[in-house]
């Protein structure tokens, strides 16, 4: 289902009125439609399932770490509807020849990020989607982000970074495997 443009347009017009603006002044006339188009784009993950991307696999006998790091993402804090953004690092150890395309890991991040979201849920949803589709030996997802709701308002702490991680399978039990992945993630 696409977003309901008409409803967003009405709501944006009401917000503009509520803050004391004139929604009919020249600069704002098209703003409700622009915001509706923007919401369609930045919430497109509502209509996407990360598992459809990840389930496209090749048969490749690599049973060691695959890590895509520094995947940039933009998401929307579900509490304030302002952005949080940063980098996602996604690694897994394939099992049984189930190797997915590298871009599919980034597509999975994108699908889950483009929703009203919490950083913790973004992190665990990406990790769980990989577990459920690829059934690998292990998954590690580390996300670092800056939250605009902590930067431009409220506590106003620009530069503060939130780091979340989700580890599954062998990364939970094998300290050497986890240390290898973390050292690669942290390498400049
Ligand atoms: N755990 C978590 N908290 C988040 C995330 N994004 C925003 N928050 C927090 O959500 C909380 C909402 O707190 P509330 O007290 O309900 O809202 P508020 O009065 O606007 O809070 P302040 O931001 O402290 O002014 C704030 O502490 C935010 O920092 C996230 O991804 N994960
Ligand atoms: Zn927020």
TrEMBL record:
UniProt keyword Metal-binding, yes or no: yes
GO-annotated cellular components: cytoplasm
Amino-acid positions noted as binding Zn(2+) in the UniProt annotation, renumbered to this chain: 77, 80, 149
Domain GTP cyclohydrolase I per the UniProt entry, residue ranges: 8-185
Record GO biological process: one-carbon metabolic process; tetrahydrobiopterin biosynthetic process; tetrahydrofolate biosynthetic process
Gene Ontology MF terms: GTP binding; GTP cyclohydrolase I activity; zinc ion binding
Coiled coil: none
Enzymatic class: hydrolase
Pfam families cross-referenced by the UniProt entry: GTP_cyclohydroI
Pathway given in the UniProt record: Cofactor biosynthesis; 7,8-dihydroneopterin triphosphate biosynthesis; 7,8-dihydroneopterin triphosphate from GTP: step 1/1
Domain of life: Bacteria
The keyword Nucleotide-binding is assigned to this record: yes
Keywords, alphabetical: GTP-binding, Hydrolase, Metal-binding, Nucleotide-binding, One-carbon metabolism, Zinc
Catalytic activity as recorded in UniProt: GTP + H2O = 7,8-dihydroneopterin 3'-triphosphate + formate + H(+)
Protein EC: 3.5.4.16
InterPro entries with a match to the protein in the record: GTP-CH-I_C/QueF, GTP-CH-I_N, GTP_CycHdrlase_I, GTP_CycHdrlase_I_CS, GTP_CycHdrlase_I_dom
Protein family per UniProt: Belongs to the GTP cyclohydrolase I family.
Subunit and partners: Homopolymer.
Protein's UniProt name: GTP cyclohydrolase 1
Organism listed in the record: Sporolactobacillus putidus
